[in-house]
Here is the input.
Amino acid sequence: MTDSNSSDKNNNDPAAAARGSQLANDFTVSVHYDRRLYHEDIAASIAHARMLGRQGIVEGDDVEKIVDGLGKIRDEIESGEFEWNPDLEDIHMNVESRLYELIGDAAGRLHTARSRNDQVATDTRMWTQTACSRAFEAAVSLQTALVDLAEQHVDTILPGYTHMQRGQPVVLAHHLMAYFEMFDRDTTRFAQAAESADVLPLGSGAMAGVPYPIDREWVAEELGFSEVSHNSMDAVSDRDFIVEFLAAASLAMAHLSRLAEELVIWSSDEFGFISISDEYTSGSSIMPQKRNPDFAELIRGKTGRVYGSLIGLLTTIKGLPLTYNRDLQEDKEGLFDAADTVIIALESAAGMISGMTVNASRMRQAAEKSFVLATDIADYLVGKGVPFREAYIAVADLSKQCIAAGIGFGELSLADFRKASDLFDEGVMKITLESAVAARNVPGGTAPDRVRAAIAEAKQMLAEAQ
Ligand code: ARG
Here is the structure.
């Protein structure tokens, strides 16, 4: 069938045409998701209407009707009475159409000096700012949970790992505070993304500006924006601020996913370092003995969709000529989904950290039944004047012998040590997990005193963030 045949056929067949228009609707309609912008959309419309009144562009009576009507619409939406109509495509048209029903012709004056292009950019910027501050708060509550748990475990020793192999002893608080640092950078990024969104596009019109004596600064102030956009063409087509939010959310998810992965591993029978509270696990439908770490797994699993939103939007904007193109409507679902996901993931992680039980003796055992003191024993020889590389070889030999004999360093006598190097003396017998962590008394090191100081500093920061 050729194209001309098929269009002839549609032209002569009303049912096919109707199917075609239904398809067009399904494809272009966004109201089923962009209704989430209702609060911002109505607030921005009210500010715009008031400004039109102040500037003498629309008469005061009409402005009052518009503002009243918009207030009613907000109530209707919030009480669930509002009838959303997909034929009206998006949130903006749904609100405008209802305004006509409520106040008649005055409704037609609201869209003076405005376009859906600057309108949707304004709504989305407002929504993104709120999402940033909610994500910020959720990250802070996770940081608080981490610090609280860290405070209880400044003296709890476990092996630190590299390559998933036991490496050197660390205190649990130090491990937890590593995540504190990651989420701290995430809060900075969320704050930065909010700042990027904090520019008012309204007044840019469709793309060239508007031929009315509007007061953009007044609207900005009404809506809480710090500044107005500098270029109307940029303002209606820029979605960088969403990319920035999605990038911040993606990194936060990466950090959450690493934490979640550790919780999964640590709660396994093989490790037994922690148990996750029942609230954050679920039973298996077939294996009665199991508690599965579902929340941790879902945090890890949902990371992909947030990355997907970031890559999706970057791809959407890459080939767009100036200015607004309908492609930009694709910004919202990814934004909403990523915001929902990162916020609930941060909150769940906070809950999991607060509620988990630490098995300190299992952690200690894992450190004891290992060679995590090898570096310290080598360092001991370095203290006696041996070059580090030579000391390293001596201790590597020693640990091979231990492994062959099925024993740990703790079971060696001084005589055994002296077989590896006659520079070993009584002091080597005093190397313990405690002495090893205490020795790492450098800024950023795992010495309990340093970790206590880091926790104190973190608590101070959190108190200031409140
Ligand atoms: N629903 C549209 C969006 O999200 C609103 C702007 C429509 N503008 C237009 N010129 N069709 O992008």
Summary: Residues 1-9 have pLDDT under 50 and may be disordered. Residues 150 and 173 are 4 Å apart (CA to CA). The pocket of arginine is lined by residues 30, 34, 90, 116-117, 120, 324, 326, 328-329 (CB under 6 Å).
